[in-house]
Amino acid sequence: LFEKCFCLLSYVIISKTNEMQDSAVMKEVWEGRVPVSFSVNPREIACIEFPKRLFLFAPRISYFPLAAEKIYKHFASYIDDDRFNEIWLEYNGIPLPWQYPIGLLYDIYADDAVHPWNITVRVKDFPQEELLSCKSLNIVEAHFNHMLKQAGVVKHQGHIIEKMQKHEIKQLWNSFVNSRFDQFWAVNLKLMENSQSHPIKALPVRLYKNDHKFVQRLCPVTVSTQPVRPSTVLDLIQITNFVAENEIEKTNFICHGVVVPHDTQLIWLYINLSYPDNFLHIVVRSK
């Protein structure tokens, strides 16, 4: 479905949000899953018997701390209770930052052929210099709201999100956590407004390579037919010098596990494939 839609995007004229939304693509993004296998570091278990793996179809748009309760219930009898407040995850020895969506982490670190994604649950030696502490879901919610506000400043200089009611912000979080697509978009559509009265002035976009460091670029937007750079993914890569010119053809641009054609319009990509945090996260990887 994604690939068919991308093929039609080369000459899309920037227009109002509701004219560019593709509800089928947005629903596919919302329902995307990553098969994950969790196991415990054998040096950190408190019994002789080694626990079975935990298998989950983790939502791409979600965060690992939202799966912490399931992880706890599965491994609790094998690990000292007082250690579970230190839980962290790693893949191939690399600590995984919890504040990144699961699908983004998979696109950064895992090979497309890796199914399931084998992740190690750790409860000792928390890497304080590499990871942020996260001991409650309140911290995840605060991070989520911070990202929304940051994106709102980029898009509308904060004018829309600052006028939203507290219950609307809470609805975004609750519907996100409980996977309520319609309830989420009933509010999020306001944050995506791109009209003459409230035009999107720039797109909040982050580019990643094979680590969790990123480059954030403000991409100007116009509601007219006059071209503005960067208007395509290729423009963005060239302007940021994120990839050497002679390496671009050897590079894939990945969003939600999909290889994005170089000529894809950024405004379309943002409206339809941005994460619930209202950022467009693009991973750059060699072919």
Automatic annotation (TrEMBL):
Membrane topology: Peripheral membrane protein
The Autophagy protein ATG5 alpha-helical bundle region domain, residue ranges: 139-193
Record has Membrane as a keyword: yes
Subcellular location: Preautophagosomal structure membrane
Biological-process GO terms, alphabetical: autophagy of mitochondrion; cellular response to nitrogen starvation; piecemeal microautophagy of the nucleus; vacuole organization
Record-linked InterPro entries: Atg5, ATG5_HBR, Atg5_HR, ATG5_UblA, Atg5_UblA_dom_sf, ATG5_UblB
Keywords in alphabetical order: Autophagy, Isopeptide bond, Membrane, Ubl conjugation
Single Gene Ontology MF annotation: Atg8-family ligase activity
Gene3D superfamilies to which the protein is assigned, alphabetical: 3.10.20.620, Autophagy protein Apg5, helix rich domain, Phosphatidylinositol 3-kinase Catalytic Subunit, Chain A, domain 1
GO CC, any one term: Atg12-Atg5-Atg16 complex
Range of residues in the leader sequence: none
Residue span, Autophagy protein ATG5 UblB domain: 203-284
Quaternary structure (record): Conjugated with ATG12.
Similarity comment: family membership: Belongs to the ATG5 family.
Function: Involved in autophagic vesicle formation.
Name of the featured protein: Autophagy protein 5
Species name: Trichinella papuae
